[in-house]
Design a protein that fits this description.
With 421 residues, the chain is α/β, with parallel strands linked by helices. It has a domain of 183 residues: D-Amino Acid Oxidase, subunit A, domain 2 (D-Amino Acid Oxidase, Chain A, domain 2, 2-Layer Sandwich). It is built from 11 helices and 21 strands. Strands 4, 6, 7, 8, 15, 16, 17, 18 and 19 form a 9-stranded mixed sheet that branches. A 6-stranded mixed sheet has the order 10-2-1-14-21-20, with helices on one face. The protein has a 3-stranded antiparallel sheet with strand order 3-9-5. Helix 1 crosses helix 11 and helix 5 crosses helix 11. It is globular.
């Protein structure tokens, strides 16, 4: 692929739209290469899916969301607000098309193809966080000495073990071992006797999402970047002199290039530039609770699709997947479903002492692969659609996007994530 700049100079001043993990990482790595950046955020830093997620940095689990297990959910299950995957009934033709395409990609063959695309990013994901730390991002990432995926029965654990075998077969380095329920409770006393089996996954990390996003923003500002919060970008106008960023007021600012990293609403600004892959909100919920004894590391309940992460003095509990509009209100039935799902497995955790109840929109694509690279318009780039993996893959995506913007062409690692596919 030849450069989209076709002999013209690389951009000196770039706008990044969206101040989540992907957008801030792209801005940071552009600065690392000497490019001036302005980040436009319609709300505030980390206001989207980056704020309330589990904060896991788990290359061992980072895989395409469409998988054969999705097809095992019956219609009755997905229509129940108590289900880990919930699809409210409403007339939405676009969502129906999205889900049909999602189901078509939920085959073993498509999953293996998608997993092969993820492996090069997964291999570099943690290293990219180390680069940020060395460059002045002060919020830490923490090594998960004991990362446990917990199950009620051995046969449930075998499903995850089979998936980890397939991830390893795709070329992803992953270290894990099955452990008994008794051993799991020795490793983590916060677990109850209802945990009958577990899988211990090694070499993973986690972080405090709000703290990390704030630290990223501070670093971008300290290095001379500008972050404009409350800036509602409504359109992009491409011309020979660059790209004009237009706001709801009708005013505009000219930039040499623009990277759109707006999560679940990515298509609103990129569709005009040839991006046809739909991005839908796969909404997740979270809240924090008090504990008598904080778990030593993250806990995962795959069958219930619930993640627990120690964040400061409270335990964040996150999970569920529902396909709704990004702006829809929080559904308290989903919070109740999370509480009921994990209550039997946790001891000394006050699930009634809930703070920071939150719902956020994970940006999902029907094939489970992000959109990262040039659009049909030179100097307009897209970066988003990571599903549940925006935190884990945000920095490496930003690193590769910075190369793409500067050179005008995507590196090989981003080939499968072409926004124009």
């Amino acid at each position: 692929m030849s450069s989209v700049y076709q002999g013209h100079a690389s951009p000196n001043e770039v706008a990044v739209i969206g101040a989540g993990m992907v957008g801030l990482s792209t801005a940071w790595f552009l600065q690392e290469a000497g490019v001036g950046v302005t980040v436009y955020e319609r709300d505030h830093v980390g206001a989207g899916a980056s704020w309330g997620n589990a904060g896991w940095l788990t290359p061992a689990l980072t895989a395409p969301l469409p998988e054969p297990a999705v097809l095992r959910y019956g219609l009755r299950a997905v229509l129940s607000p108590r289900s880990p995957v919930y699809l409210p009934i409403r007339a939405d033709r676009d969502l129906l098309r999205f889900l049909v395409t999602f189901a078509r990609h939920s085959t073993a063959r498509q999953w293996r193809r998608g997993m092969s695309a993820y492996v090069p990013l997964n291999e570099r994901a943690l290293e990219a966080f180390d680069v940020l730390a060395a460059g002045g991002v002060t919020a830490p990432t923490k090594r998960a000495g004991s990362f446990l995926a917990c199950f009620a029965r051995d046969r449930d654990a075998r499903v995850l073990l089979a998936e980890l075998e397939q991830i390893a077969a795709a070329g992803q380095a992953v270290s894990y071992q099955p452990v008994s329920g008794r051993r799991a409770r020795v490793l983590e006393p916060a677990l109850t006797g209802r945990v009958g089996a577990a899988v211990e996954i090694r070499g993973q990390r986690y972080l405090h999402p709000p703290d990390f996003l704030r630290s990223m923003a501070e670093s971008v500002r300290d290095r001379g970047g500008r972050i404009a919060e409350g800036a509602d970008v409504t359109a992009l106008e491409y011309g020979s002199g660059g790209v004009r960023v237009v706001f709801g007021s009708g005013e505009g600012v000219q930039h040499d290039a623009v990277v759109v990293a707006t999560g679940a609403v990515l298509g609103a600004l990129t569709e005009a530039f040839g991006v046809r892959q739909p991005v839908r909100a796969g909404r997740g919920y979270s809240f924090s609770v008090g504990t008598e004894r904080m778990p030593a590391g993250p806990l995962y309940f795959p069958k219930q699709r619930v993640a627990c992460t120690p964040l400061g003095e409270r335990l964040r509990v996150a999970g569920m997947m529902e396909f709704r509009r990004p702006g829809d209100a929080l559904d308290p039935r989903r919070i109740a479903a999370i509480v009921d799902a994990v209550r039997p497995f946790l001891a000394g955790v006050d699930l009634n002492d809930r703070h920071d109840e939150w719902v956020g929109s994970r940006p999902c694509t029907p094939d489970g692969l992000p959109l990262a690279g040039p659009t049909a318009a030179p100097r307009v780039f897209a970066a988003g659609g990571h599903g549940m993996w925006g935190i884990a893959l945000g920095p490496v995506t930003g690193q590769l996007m910075a190369q793409t913007v500067i050179k005008g062409e995507a590196p090989p690692e981003l080939g499968p994530f072409d926004p124009l596919r």
